[in-house]
Amino acid sequence: MKSIAVEELLKLDTNNIAIIDVREINEFQSGHISGATNIPAAGLFYNPEKFLDIHNHYYLICESGGRSSAVCNRLTELGYNVTNVSGGMSMFRHMKGE
Question: What CATH number is associated with residue 49?
Fold first, then answer.
């Protein structure tokens, strides 16, 4: 499974990459990366074809990196091109000074 640190993600143009926030809806609504799409982990884990194009690359993020890592492992096994954002939103908020 591929992984990227929040510091590296912040160097990318987040307007030109697909960021999937796998937290629950209420967590997403309390704050998220601009441009991120919210798809809770269970949906992606069990029905990825409903949400993702197997030909695209996605960066997955959750609160601390645990849920997104589990989903990334599953999606990688299924042939999806995904990268886990290690540290998650808690590290993102820390890096942004929030």
Answer: 3.40.250.10
Token couple for 36: 């991120």
| 3-state secondary structure (DSSP) of residue 16 | coil
Amino acid present at 42: A
In angstroms, the CA 17 to CA 22 distance is 16
pTM of this prediction exceeds 0.85: yes
DSSP letter at 6?
Answer: H
- Distance CA(55)–CA(69), nearest Å, equals 20
Residue 4 has phi, psi (to 5 degrees) of: -140, 140
Q: Residues 91, 6: contact at Cβ < 8 Å?
A: yes
Q: State how many domains the chain has.
A: 1
pLDDT band at 6 (very low <50, low <70, confident <90, very high): very high
